[in-house]
Amino acid sequence: MRLVVVAHAETTGTRAAVFGDVGDLVDEVAAPALRTPGRWWSAPEPACAATASALADDPTAVAVLDGLRGPDLGAWAGRPLDEVIATDPAGLATWLTDPGAAPHGGESLTALLARVGDVLDGTTWPDAGATLSVTPLAARALAVHALAGPPASVLHLDVAPGAALRLARTGGTWRLSALVPPAARAARGTRKGPRVSGVPD
């Protein structure tokens, strides 16, 4: 059984490094290099739904799975990274080093990993495979779950907006079989705000 996971295309929020991004897409959605199976599911975020609608053969058939949503980032939601660095440096440092912490008052990375893992394992996917449109951070969590990695690994992967990964399951075991960067990344705008290792794109 194969799944392709597509991180939603670049948005105004990802360009500005906004936590809990709900920005609008800024470019035409480029098809990922991986072939995407015909059946599509989307996380509820607008950028995920818009990406799926742009790429699916039948946009009206895209189903929403709430369990695939990105994490609840609490007080940081909607705030750019540089603002969080300035106002809550200790909280950010804790979040970057302790996946069980939720200094923003929302959902920890450990909780995100468990939630998307439950969806991955508990959903009856079509035999022919499926494609999931999710946030970049949820895509990281899905990859870590497939690798049976520790929760801290979520922030040691880079899955940029528009990137895709392929997951395969044999028996009850998932594996990560491909990770492909987004198409035409060089043609996109420059991300604003400081670069902090592990922070979502």
TrEMBL record:
<dbReference type="InterPro" id="IPR013078">
    <property type="entry name" value="His_Pase_superF_clade-1"/>
</dbReference>
<dbReference type="Pfam" id="PF00300">
    <property type="entry name" value="His_Phos_1"/>
</dbReference>
<protein>
    <submittedName>
        <fullName>Broad specificity phosphatase PhoE</fullName>
    </submittedName>
</protein>
<dbReference type="InterPro" id="IPR029033">
    <property type="entry name" value="His_PPase_superfam"/>
</dbReference>
